Every structure is written in C-alpha cells, then in structure tokens.
C-alpha cells in the first residue's frame, strides 16, 4: 500500500473510542502483499480501503514504510503520538491534545529552547554525556521497539525499552517503560508511565536543571502566553515554585483559536520515600518555567552516583484536562497513584 493510500483510508475511517496505528510492530498481519488492520475486541467487518465500521473501537495498522511511531486516535482524531525515531535524542509524546478541543496541549521545538519536545524523559550530565539536548554524538536514548499490550475504547497500554548510549560506545543504562493512556471522561484523561532503569556501569548523575520526566506546553496555556501555572498549594507562577516540593504543577489557559475553551495539563511528583533509590534526600524539587516547561527534577540541587547493577523505579503521571486546575480533582488523582 502506498503512503498516500494509507492516510487517505485512515481519514475515511469512522472510528469510535480509541484506536491506534503502530509502525514496525511484530503483530503485523499480512495477506499476500497487503498489510491488514488488527482489531482489539472487533465486532464489525473489514471495509475495503483500510477503513473500519463505526462499531469498531480499536484498530492497529502496521505499515512497513513508517518510522516505528505509535499513533493513537480518539473518535478517529489524533489524540497522541509516541515518537521513537532512531535520529531522535529520546522517545517522546507529541502531540497530546485537549479533551474538548482535540488540539495539542504540548509543543515541540519551540523557542526559547527548541530541544524541548512534548512529553519527555531525558537527562543531561550523565557520565559526561547528554541525554537531553545537543547532538546525538553526546548521547541518545534509543527505543528498542513499541509493543501494544492492550487497548479498548477508553484505554491503551504499550511498552518500550530504552538504551542510553553514545554512538559506537557500549550502553551505560537500559530502561523499561509501560505507558497507559486512560480516557476517564470527556473532561480529562491520564497518562501513566511505570518506569525502571538499570545501571550497566558505574553511573554519575551530575547536578543539572535539565530533564527528567515532564512536559513542554503550548504557548496559550502557559503564563508567558496568557495562561496560568499553579501548584497543588495554590501558588502561582515560576518565581514562587522553582526548586520547591509540590505534589503537582499544572498549566491551563484559554485556547488561542477558541477562547471559549479552557484546557490544561498537570504533572505529578511522587512523595519523598519513592525517590530514595534515586539518591534524593527528602522531597524531589521542581523545575518550573513560565514559558511552559515543568518537571520534577531529582538532580536539580545536587547529583548522585550509582554502582553498576543499581535499579531505580518510579511511577509518573500527567493529566490532560478541560477547564482550570481547580475544576479537576488533581489531589484525588495524585492520591490514587501515590497516596
């Protein structure tokens, strides 16, 4: 199938609920020379031209021409894309859309720091390498392949493995990831990341203000673009939240294309006990920026060293919502995963 035929057919599909498209996965079904859609919980019939009936919730296409990205749709509109190209610094999610607008709440390659990309996980100053910015020669986190675990009309779960290495050198870290997007209701959906990484050699993480897990949001929902940045304690803006400990930080604002819609996203931070194996004494500090970047940052204040064989685990959560941060029970959603 030609690329243009694939996307033409995808646009014609009348999907309900969540659906996903994944390139390069081993679940690919083949009949002759034609790649066929793979359904989860299918009750309808195939429609010529790669479409699916309105009763279909989940479809998976595995074209052999794409870059092993995972595309996730809601009612046949793009909800999120997990990007894993081998020329990237690290795998990341972009876009992730607002639940009312279906327009991205995240940005990538935007000023003033174009290396920020959507919903990310990276780190610089690791054994002299940089797994967050600069060129690939300084280090990359390389995806080892996306696998979709399960999917229904409201939830999709997939896994990936990351290898931290410089070109032509042995890896220093491997990680495992399980992502879940859970469409709880039409007012919000959740992204969960169950994360684990293993040190293959002795690893030194120097103090840094870059990384770790976080988001770079669209300009219209951050303070520099007219939106708001607020913590779980009701503290607004960068100056009063920087390097502080918070359960969560959230951006929200009126959407530029339609001010009648207010949307936002929040990133959660685990309690102090969860960061013990990460070399953090006490609560994890936050990096917050009025231009649109928030991330709980374990090595913001001081670095840490770990012997080969060390395993670190963490659960991360982000919430994408309609309305303001006060309209969603973010504290309840925090307690759900960390309480």
Briefly characterize the structure.
With about 350 residues, the protein is mainly β.
Give structural notes:
By secondary structure, the chain is mainly beta. The protein has one domain (96-338). It is built from two helices and 26 strands. The strands form seven sheets. Strands 13, 14, 15, 16, 17, 20, 21, 22 and 26 form a nine-stranded antiparallel sheet that branches. The chain starts with a helix and ends with a helix.
Query: Tell me, what's the shape?
Result: globular
Straight-line N-to-C gap: 49 Å
Low-confidence stretches are 1-15, 24-66
Helix run count? 2
The whole-number mean of residue pLDDT values reads 85
What does the radius of gyration come to? Answer: 20 Å
Please estimate the helix content: under 10%
Number of discrete domains: 1
Q: Note the beta-strand portion.
A: 35-45%
The class by helix and strand makeup works out as mainly beta
H/E series:
HEEEEEEEEEEEEEEEEEEEEEEEEEEH
* DSSP E strands, number: 26
Largest sheet: 9 strands, antiparallel
């Amino acid at each position: 199938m030609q690329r243009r035929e694939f996307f033409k057919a995808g646009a014609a599909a009348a999907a309900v609920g969540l659906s996903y498209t994944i390139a390069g996965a081993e679940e690919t079904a083949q009949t002759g020379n034609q790649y066929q859609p793979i359904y989860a919980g299918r009750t309808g019939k195939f429609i010529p031209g790669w479409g699916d009936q309105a009763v279909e919730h989940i479809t998976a296409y595995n074209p052999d021409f794409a870059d092993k990205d995972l595309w996730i749709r809601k009612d046949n509109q793009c909800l999120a894309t997990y990007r894993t190209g081998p020329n990237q610094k690290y795998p990341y999610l972009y876009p992730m859309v607002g639940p009312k607008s279906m327009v991205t709440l995240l940005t990538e390659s935007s000023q003033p720091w174009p290396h920020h990309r959507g919903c990310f996980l990276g780190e610089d100053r690791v054994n002299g390498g940089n797994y967050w910015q600069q060129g690939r020669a300084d280090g990359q986190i390389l995806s080892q392949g996306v696998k979709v675990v399960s999917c229904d009309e409201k939830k999709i779960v997939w896994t990936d493995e990351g290898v931290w290495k410089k070109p032509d050198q042995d890896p220093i870290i491997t990680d495992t990831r399980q992502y879940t997007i859970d469409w709880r209701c039409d007012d919000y959906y959740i992204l969960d990341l169950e994360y684990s990484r293993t040190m293959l050699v002795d690893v030194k993480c120097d103090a840094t203000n870059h990384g770790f897990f976080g988001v770079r949001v669209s300009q219209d929902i951050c303070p520099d673009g007219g939106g708001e940045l607020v913590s779980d304690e009701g503290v607004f803006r960068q100056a009063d939240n920087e390097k502080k400990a918070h359960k969560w930080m959230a951006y929200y604002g009126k959407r530029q294309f339609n001010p009648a819609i207010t949307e936002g996203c929040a990133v959660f931070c685990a309690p102090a006990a969860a960061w013990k194996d990460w070399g953090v004494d006490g609560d994890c500090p936050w990096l917050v920026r009025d231009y649109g970047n928030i991330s709980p940052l374990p090595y913001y204040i001081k670095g840490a060293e770990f012997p080969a064989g060390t395993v670190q685990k963490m659960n991360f959560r982000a919430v994408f919502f309609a309305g303001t941060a006060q309209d969603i029970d973010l504290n309840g959603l925090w307690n759900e995963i960390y309480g």
